[in-house]
Automatic annotation (TrEMBL):
Coiled-coil stretches noted in the UniProt entry, renumbered to this chain: none
UniProt xrefs under Pfam families: Polysacc_deac_1
Organism: Paenibacillus tundrae
Protein name: Peptidoglycan/xylan/chitin deacetylase (PgdA/CDA1 family)
Gene3D superfamilies: Glycoside hydrolase/deacetylase
Residues in NodB homology domain copies: 42-229
Length: 245
C-alpha cells in the first residue's frame, strides 16, 4: 500500500508540474518571435544626392545585390545626360526626388521663385526621360539657412512639393578617400539616431567614392535587421525647419 501511495503522489506531482512548465516554454518562444519582429521592423531611409552620374549603374548593382532600396534626389541636367540610369532608378522601384538644376546657391536661392522654378524644371526633365513626376525635393546643401519661410511658402504651399533633409550625414562628400572614416561615422550616427527612437535618414552621394564604402554599410545594416524603405509623398517630411507640409 505504501508503494502504491508513493506512486500516486509522484504521478500527481508530475501532473502539477507539467502545466507550470508548458506556459514558460510557449512564452519564451513568443518572446523570441517578438524580438525578431522588432529587429526586422527597424526602418532606414538611404538617400543619394547629385545623380545620376556615370557611376549610378554600379551603385544600383550594389543596392540590388543587398536587396536594398534607396531614394535618389536628382539634378535635371544629369537626368537628361544619363537617361538610362534615370530609367533604371524608376524601373528598380527606388524613391524619386528632385535636387534642382544648377546646384549653385547664388542661382538657386536668388529668390523664392528661382528655387521653385529649378525644382519644376527638374521635374520636367524627370518626366521627359522616364515619364514620371515626383513631389519630393531636397534643396542644394540642405534647407538651412536658405529656405526661410518665404521660400518654403512658395516651394511647399504654392508648388506642392515636400521638402526633405537628413539626420545622418555620411560625409562621403568630404572624406572621399578615407572610406573607413565614412563607415565609422555613418554607423555611429545611425545607431545614435535609432536609439533616440527616430528613423535614420542617411545622406550619401551618387559618386565613385561612395561605391567603396556602400557594400560594407549595407552588409552591416542587413545583419542588424534594418529594412530599407523609400521616401514618398505619404511619408511625413523630415527637414531642418520641422515643416511637415
Amino acid at each position: 500500500m505504501l508503494h502504491i501511495r508513493r506512486s500516486w503522489i509522484t504521478a500527481l506531482a508530475i501532473l502539477l508540474i507539467i502545466p507550470l512548465l508548458l506556459p514558460q516554454s510557449v512564452s519564451a518562444k513568443a518572446s523570441s518571435k517578438d524580438n525578431g519582429a522588432k529587429a526586422n521592423s527597424k526602418i532606414i531611409y538611404l538617400t543619394f544626392d547629385d545623380g545620376p552620374t556615370a557611376h549610378t549603374g554600379q551603385l544600383l548593382d550594389i543596392l540590388d545585390q543587398y536587396h536594398a532600396k534607396a531614394t535618389f534626389f536628382m539634378l535635371g541636367p544629369h537626368m537628361e545626360t544619363y537617361p538610362k540610369a534615370t530609367k533604371r532608378i524608376v524601373a528598380d522601384g527606388h524613391g524619386l526626388g528632385l535636387h534642382g538644376v544648377t546646384h549653385v546657391p547664388g542661382k538657386f536661392y536668388k529668390t523664392p521663385y528661382t528655387a521653385l522654378k529649378e525644382m519644376q524644371q527638374a521635374n520636367v526633365s524627370l518626366n521627359k526621360v522616364a515619364g514620371v513626376k515626383t513631389s519630393l525635393v531636397r534643396t542644394p546643401y540642405g534647407s538651412k539657412p536658405y529656405m526661410k519661410a518665404p521660400y518654403r511658402n512658395v516651394m511647399l504651399a504654392q508648388g506642392g512639393f515636400h521638402m526633405w533633409d537628413w539626420n545622418v550625414d555620411s560625409e562621403d562628400w568630404k572624406y572621399k578617400k578615407d572610406h573607413q572614416r565614412v563607415y565609422n561615422s555613418v554607423m555611429k550616427q545611425i545607431h545614435n539616431v535609432q536609439k533616440s527612437g527616430t528613423t535614420p535618414i542617411v545622406l550619401m552621394h551618387d559618386q565613385e567614392a561612395t561605391l567603396k564604402v556602400l557594400p560594407k554599410v549595407l552588409q552591416t545594416l542587413k545583419s542588424e535587421g534594418y529594412k530599407f524603405e523609400v521616401l514618398n509623398k505619404s511619408v511625413q517630411p523630415v527637414n531642418f525647419w520641422n515643416d511637415k507640409r
